[in-house]
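User: I'm writing a tutorial on reading structure tokens. Could you give me a worked example: one chain, its sequence, then its tokens, then a sentence or two explaining what the tokens reveal?
Assistant: Sure. Here is the example chain.
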Amino acid sequence: MSVRVVRLGSPRPAGEGLRLGTVRRLPRGVRKEDYAKRDYFDLWFPELAPSQKLLGYAVARPLTDEARWEKFSKSYEREMAQPGAQRILQVLARLSHQADFSVGCYCEDESRCHRSLLAQLLGQQGAKMT
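And here are its predicted structure tokens:
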């Protein structure tokens, strides 16, 4: 049992379990009933996505330079330090010891995506990671 970090829309590996879309926006041009069929996600979970304001910062200019990535990272971590987000992270960390599931985002480069930060936050909460 564990949690895996994935790119939404990528093929599902065997045993992945439930896929949670930790994104602010739904996939464009995809019908709701096709989200899971097309390997986006089984459940949309925007509570773990960057806020609309932070997403706007990331979209305005790519997070390729270190200073912009650091600012984004610190801001996302502050958002996830809020009580509601902390409770969600704790629940997912505990569930990772009893069920297989995944969390993901659309970004091509995981190293410059909130999902890499989310993986670290889940690990800090004691999640069993794949």
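What the tokens reveal: The CA atoms of residues 18 and 101 lie 5 Å apart. The chain has one domain: 3-124.
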